[in-house]
Write the structure tokens for this entry.
Amino acid sequence: MNVITIFAEEHWQSIIAFVWFMVCFYGYMIYSKRMALTTHCLSSVLHQYRQAWMEQMLTRDVRVADTTALANLERSVTFFASSTMLILAGVVTVMGSTDKVIDLVADVPFAIHASRSEWELKLLLLVGLFMYAFFKFTWSLRQYGFCAVMLGGAPTPDAPVSERERRASAIRIAHVASLAANNFNQGLRTYYFSLAVLGWFINPWLFITLSGGIVWVLYRREFKSRTLEEMIMSRPE
């Protein structure tokens, strides 16, 4: 019996939990992206608002309010990007004192004993998730910076350009802003799924339950929330 077979027999619960988590994580990312193209959700409705915002922006000579709103969005992304670095530092620190954490969790009800190597693999999953979130946040931040440049270069109300060119400019700026927002949203989703991973340190079945629960929470908020209903009712045509 080879090493892989022995490992699979000893850790089959964790393997099932990990596979289920990856299905939930990537499956929801793909599902939400495709559904946004055909149905109303926070992502698609907000894009309509951004396009209306940019069309209104082109009618104003003074665009201080627009740049301020964009700066506020950048500030939110910056907060999460910097927080992610602190979390990563904390997880790496925990990896250096794994034995103490194992003893601490051992007293938790329903906790399943795991070896040091198993704990380190679980911590590496958290590191990978927060690294993914960090890259998403920083890319979102750069895209908001690109959007600010495009906003600064947008034609003024008295510029000698056609209405078609104005609308095309508004569409392009809104599209870049939506790309930035979507990357920020993916980083936030990663935070949600990282909470599910904490259940893995206690019990693989708790990990499976929390992974499915996170998908349900995200789906309800992005596709069935009261906030979405209100935004649809007042969205720009």
Q: What stands out?
A: The chain has a mean pLDDT of 87. Residues 163-200 form the longest helix (38 residues). The CA atoms of residues 200 and 207 lie 5 Å apart.
